[in-house]
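Review form for a predicted model. The reviewer records the input and the model, then writes brief findings.
Reviewer: anonymous (R2)
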Amino acid sequence: MRNQVRLPMVLLTIFITVIPAVAYAAISIGVKKGDWIEYQVTVAGTVPQDHNITWARMDVTDVQGTAITLNITTIFSNETLLPEKITLNLETGVLGDDFIIPANLNYRDTFFDMNQGNITIRDTGEKTVAGVDRTVVSGTTTETTYFWDKATGFLVEATTIFSGYTMTTKVERTNMWTPLLFGLDPAFFFILIAIAIVAVLAATAILVMSRRKIAP
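Model under review:
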């Protein structure tokens, strides 16, 4: 009888221990220290000064587990500059204004926002972001439609409709991906240019040497 009671208790203990570890492992972090992203912000309507933002930048200064520390610089329409340091936590749902979410989410996946509750990924697709075609995922809350870069989880576009005004945020620049040149990665493009220059110089040198040999 004791063994029959003890076995369910052991299984329950294993279940309680394993489930948090599985949940933690399921959260994929797509950013690293040194990543940064810049946004242009446009507003329309009667906007309170604390929301009258024109530009913002986020720098990832540290990543520890599911905790991500950001330096955020915000510029307002009156040219006031606001520097902030915040720490997000993708496990506990401390996401700010959903600046960063778990990476590599798919259609119908959900993530937790402590202010909004569970947010479901409504769609996936392609969007040109800072000059590069990226796979994005989207979701909505009562006020905002969001687009996040799938691979990094970073916010790339958001439109929020408040009472009396609308705010739209879009990525302007980032170091996490590089705009293409003529459809090619810039590094590869410049390698091709260098090869072409070397080939032209070599052909010119051969031509000059040939003429010298022919000349009487």
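Findings: The chain has two domains: 30-174, 182-216.
Further findings: The first strand starts at residue 36 and ends at 45.
Recommendation: see findings above.
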